[in-house]
Amino acid sequence: MFDGDDYIFKGGLDKLIEVSKKTNADFINGERMETLYIKDRFDEELEKRDNLFLTRKNSSDLEYFMELLTLKDSESADIFSALHSLIKKEIVKEIRFDEEKKYFSDYSFMIKAINKSNNFKSAENALYAKRQRDDSINSPSLTDEANIDYFKYSIEEYEKIKESIEEFNDKNKKDVLKSAINEKILSYYLNIYSKMFRSDKKWRNENFDKISQVSKDLDIDNIKNYKKEIIALQNHDLKSVTKYINFRLAKAKFKEIINNLNWDLLVQTIYLNIFNKMKIKDNRICLISFRGDFYTDSPKYIYQYLLEEYGDKFEYIWIINDKNTNIPGKPKKVKRDSLKYFYYIATSKYWVTNGRQPFKLLKRPQQVILSTWHGTPLKRLGLDIGNIHSGSPGIKKTYVKNAKEWNYLVSPNRYTSEILKSAFLYEGEILEVGYPRNDILYNASEKDVREIKKNLNLPEDKKIILYAPTWRDDDFYDIGEYKFNLKLDLDKLKDEFSEEYIILIRTHYFIANKLDLSNYKGFAIDVSKYDDIAELYLISDILITDYSSVFFDFANLKRPILFFTYDLDKYEHVLRGFYIDIHKDVPGPLLFSTEEVIDNIKNIDNVVDDFGEKYDEFYERFCSIDDGRATERIVKRVWK
């Protein structure tokens, strides 16, 4: 039996069929696991595992079958499933799934099929992946839709299964299945229930009676470890169980730290158990942009305004990975994920970030998070994305958690406000006042522009093209590290424009590989590590981009924009999709080849004329709130 959105790994079905032909068994199964990944990513991630399959030790055919049936050693809460099973027709011809039952309808079916079967076999190294839903909002499972108490339903079903097993005539079959289910119950208690027990006191109090009652079915004589803990559980001794669970989990964490020299886990433990109990400093502000890789974006301009207006009234903590980064004033510079980072995060009253805060951080009730976000969205975000091609597919669950913790969310226009509310289910206060990072586009002087060019060693007598493409979801090395393949033919551009233009290339901060521009010295310059892209806008005469949000900001300058969208069909229909009609709404032409780009640069005045009216409409819709005073409005609201 198979579900339509699940996966079978490399010949798994063939292996089940092969076993059926060789053995003529009544009931055949294979190993199952759960995954959030789409098929291609699932295959890639599986290849990285050292042990792909459950090792069969000295188990009999029936014992191994039951181990696979109950997902032994898995942290799944399901007791068993009909998935990845091959059953003879005569066994199931009179057995039906209970259509009146919305949840766990395969439990009673499987019990009946097992009872009627006499010969059990398993296909080794035949792996089936049950695809879990990664978006409980747009694509909810049955349990998501109903928001049911999964633990409560599981316990109720366990009691029914236990009663049904007692009706088995075959004592060996009965004993082996009961033993497998008891091992599952023990595994669930140790690996899942204990963590919930420790983290959620209300849940613990509501469910302790149930787990205590179920534990009485466990045979103490067959439990090698945790005997005292299980006895306390069976005796309904909440105080002792609490002590045992706390000690066991702390010991496991300490062991992992020592055995694997896991510095991150050690720091995380200190953060949660020591730093998060320290006093919060009301005048302390933590600021971070793009994971600490740059001193830039809206947090930079909020900091500079606070520094100018309030001086040393506040203590400023800049999360910056390169501590040699030049930052005015005297902020404390702290590397992300260091011990100091967690200390200051735990004790700062304010966090200012241009993205989502890491899932491992725990916002305290007294703290205030100001999320400035980092652009007007063109491509779909958060819960509006379909399948996750890269990164952790469980990330959608963190979007909602992150947004619930934000006190303020900055937006440059109504369009962005509505999208961010939808994409992250944000229900807090939106500061629709413009982007602080765009203030410089209205306030910079000619002297400032000359100074930026001087710092980049750019000649005064040449015009500048800024090429700023985004990243592709399906082109990556690992989580958060993406490849970039330059599709713009720099040789052709150099031949045409090296006398008149310089091209600056700015890749997305997710891009991990460095561009080799050694053949284009004096014409093409990699500015991907330049801190502030707004300064690059100021010195650029033309922007070339694709699906990056940079064009929304650049449009504040009312300078020409070209869209090099060589993979538009794939990006629009497979990878992400867009919020606006890119074919009609953008203030520049869509170009699909280097030749088209060259032609439009040569005729840039015609482009300006052709798109003048559309540009004005675009500016009014997306840029009209920005006026150089967004930072001032935000600071007056947050630091009243």
- Rg, Å, rounded: 30 Å
Low-pLDDT sequence parts: 474-483
Report the β-strand fraction as a percent range.
5-15%
- The side-by-side strand order for the widest beta sheet comes to 7-6-5-8-9-10-11
> How many E strands?
19
Question: What would the average pLDDT be, to the nearest integer?
Answer: 86
Largest sheet: 7 strands, parallel
Q: What shape does the CA trace take?
A: globular
Structural category: alpha/beta
**Terminal Cα span:** 62 Å
What does this structure look like?
The chain is of the alpha/beta class. The strands form 4 sheets. The chain has a 7-stranded parallel beta sheet with strand order 7-6-5-8-9-10-11, sandwiched between helices. A 6-stranded parallel beta sheet has the order 16-15-12-17-18-19. Helix 15 links the parallel strand 9 (368-371) and strand 10 (408-411). Helix 3 (61-69) runs parallel beside helix 8 (171-199), helix 5 packs parallel to helix 7 (150-165) and helix 13 (297-310) packs across helix 26. Mean pLDDT is 86; it is low at 474-483.
